[in-house]
Amino acid sequence: MASTYNNLKDIEASSNHLILRIKVRVVKIWSLSPAEQKYVKPTLELVVMDHVGDRIQCTIRNAQRRLFEDELSEGKIYIVCNFSTSLNDQKYKATNHACRIYFKRDTQLQMVHDPSFPENVFRFVPNDLILNHTNAQSHLIDVIGLLTGKGDIIEFTKNGKKCSYTVLELDDMQGKGKIRCTLWEDFATMLVKHIEEQPTSEYIIIVQFAKFNLFKGAMGISNTNHNSILYINADFQEVKDFRKSVVMAGVPRANQLSQIAVEPAYSMEDDLINVSIYKPISELKASIEEAEDSYYCAKCATYPTTHTPRYSINIKVADDTDTASFLLYDKEAAKYLGISASDLRLAQLTRGGVNEEYPIELNSFRGKKFLFKVSIKMEDLNSFQPCKVIVMKMTDEISLITKFLGKHDIYQQNLALEHSELLNMQTASTDTPKLKMQGTGSPSVEALVENSNDAFSTPKRNIISGGCSKRLIDLYPDSANGSSSKCRKLEDGIPGVDRVYQD
What we know:
alpha+beta; five-stranded mixed β-barrel; 31% strand
């Protein structure tokens, strides 16, 4: 009987000292493997549901996977006992349960048959809550809606791989707004094929395990690569009930679907000069919670982090108003460094270095002027760093930078001269700056609101020639005579770091 089993909602991280026994249906199974460990068998991930429809994510680590993977099947019901629990604090969350389950070597698994156990229980999130949601990486959700608009399938090539997607418009019939839904790869093909082969008066779409997707400041949804499920006019009671609301609203027939315009393909000049939204760094910091794409011209300072086989670089940039930290991935960086992530690692090893050492090739960025297109990504609000600013495009073409400066009335003298010593970090030859190595799954990033000066020294002079009153000493007011984790010196008017000391 159901009363002899623990409900999923009652499972807590502190339940490890208890003997728990659950009866659940496996809703979805998928695998996750770190990109840098392709030789390692991936972990097995599950989402299971109890008799009232509550869900929890389960993880079977590599060492235990062979013990259970042949016994598990989607849609089957199992009795599970002798497992461990932990906080659901990882970045990827398939459910909003506060905990997740980990299978152990001695976890007991028994498949059972129970006709009274529900096949599937959806927890639909209404459109108004999606539109007002702020954290695009919180957890996966269920969405139901009437298809009211559809775009064409867009095909493109990324890193030598062909990709495709289509954009939909979904209405949940509650009169509080429609949402944008992006379907990728097989999901897009599946929808188009269904519409062509089974024309009908309306198409009711369910996306189970959809992820939040922020596009141009508006929150929508999209499918995931691993575990989303797409239902089109499925024979569920939820679909029948939803269809009643469609009939009551008198929605037009399917042949009157609105066509969603394809996003135009812009050249680098059009994108950065004519289409972009310009914001200086100071204004970007003030409006960071808006999480919208922003564009501005700034100058690179220093780059404290990287990793292999892909690398990311935290760059300090400065414009005529303020400074900030951007996250630059190897895709854009390699265009200007002229070296791939694997070649960068090989060069390090050839020189007898180790992965943690600072690659000298990165110095070619320092002090140069770029025009950046960046995207603000909101992270988990409970995380240490709630946001990151990712460089999407960048160019050092003088003509584009000059045109951009002229359009926004930014005078050249308000930016440091190209290849000047602005924020140049002169490091003693006996001290090689160490880099924090990262995994590709969760790169180290800095929040825009962080004003740490650990990455460069603080010159006691204007950083900009020609009338800018803001100085680095104003932005980072630690006295040269006061205590600091770094001993600083000035030589011939150029700021430098003499030696780095650990507190």
